[in-house]
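Morning!

This is the sequence you dropped in the shared folder:
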Amino acid sequence: MNKEVLGPLVNMGLRLAPARAARNSRNDLQSYLQGYDSTERARLVSRLGWHGDAYLLPDRQIGSSNEHLHFYEAGAALPPISQAGTLEQWQQQIGALCIDNHRLAFAASTAFAGPLLHLLGHESGGFHFHGISSSGKSTTGRVACSVYGPPAFERSWRSTDNALESIASAHSDGLLVLDEISQCDPRIVGETVYMLGNGTGKARANDRGQAGKPVQEWRLLFVSSGEKTLAETMAEAGRELKAGMEIRMLAMHADAGQGFGLFDTLHGFEGGAALSDALQARVKKFYGTPLLAFLTALCEPGQLLGYTAMLRQTVERFASEALPASASGQAHRAAARFALVAAAGELATALARPDQ
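The structure's back. Tokens below.
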């Protein structure tokens, strides 16, 4: 029997008799598999996210497909997408604090926008919150993470480009949150941003000069934070910032200008630090349920095409209202990403209302 078939079965618990008996066992197993007849079909896939009208998560498939989807990729570092608490608790403990706090609301909306890239045919890209230390900028990433899972959902800029390719691929059709940008080697950070925004890894050869593993691909939105901008980080290594890098990771000031750091309003807390500490504690207790509810609503039979058309109209209207006719192509690309995030946040809010 082909090792590619037998190997995974052994890894999942199949036990064969030793020596000569094992050969007979393999033959018996092969005869059984070849003779087994069933109308149900399953497909092994090497990435999460959309497959037709179904969305695959590490532990479940949302939406229907002709075949049952099963993720299999040896050695893949799957994102810890999981749930704790209820959707109502997330809304009350975390979502409510995003109201009138524009940067928090934007970060949460970016999390919902990741799965919509494929539906609208949009490119990958990201946002970078930058500002002075203790401004609360890292809280944006933690709140975005809570839509998908625990704080461990956040990944590190301190990764080789090879490792980050695998990480990006595992987060395809979703969100990638990266911590402090200063942890990335300033000599490669620009090229890393290019790679994440382009949605493809590098082609690599094996030790015989032949093509190695297939090139990894993804489509995602990513949220980054740091005291310095991309340009400042690259300048440390004498690297030149190119316009293509800036458009792939759009810079945003973390300070809201109200004297509370990241926040526009404190919702009764004594200060920005107190609000940030509260959020940091709450995202450890309540997470993951918003994504599950959002995807379940999107994948309701007969709904996906209607939502897609509505989102496309919203994005196009935003671009036409926000940009002059003479706007450059890069301006249109940036506006489209901002519009997608806004549309995603509005849709997620509408789907969460009981009367919708």
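Headline: The CA atoms of residues 4 and 102 lie 50 Å apart.

More detail when I'm at my desk.
O.
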